[in-house]
Specification:
- The chain is an all-alpha fold.
- The protein has a domain of 27 residues.
- It is built from three helices and no strands.
- Helix 1 runs antiparallel to helix 2.
- The longest helix is centred in the N-terminal third of the chain and has 22 residues.
- The model has no long low-confidence stretch (mean pLDDT 95).
């Protein structure tokens, strides 16, 4: 696996997350559908490598925490 390529894609993905959050809002089904779909695509791109899956799980948890904090404000 090309780790440099993967982590560069993660940086790009996070930038795209920020755009989609601004575009759709964290509470929208469009945003979470995009998150889920794009995470699945990245996992498949790297043949469901365990590191990729764990990275995606961590990023989903991170987004979920941001969402929960935004709801409490």
């Amino acid at each position: 696996m090309d780790y440099q390529k993967f982590f560069n894609e993660i940086v790009s993905w996070i930038n795209e997350v920020n755009k989609k959050a601004s575009q759709f809002g964290l509470e929208s089904s469009e945003f979470w559908t995009w998150v889920t779909r794009s995470m699945g695509e990245l996992c498949e791109l790297y043949d469901n490598n365990p590191l990729v899956i764990k990275q995606m799980v961590m990023l989903h948890e991170w987004l979920d925490e941001i969402y929960i904090k935004s709801k409490s404000k």
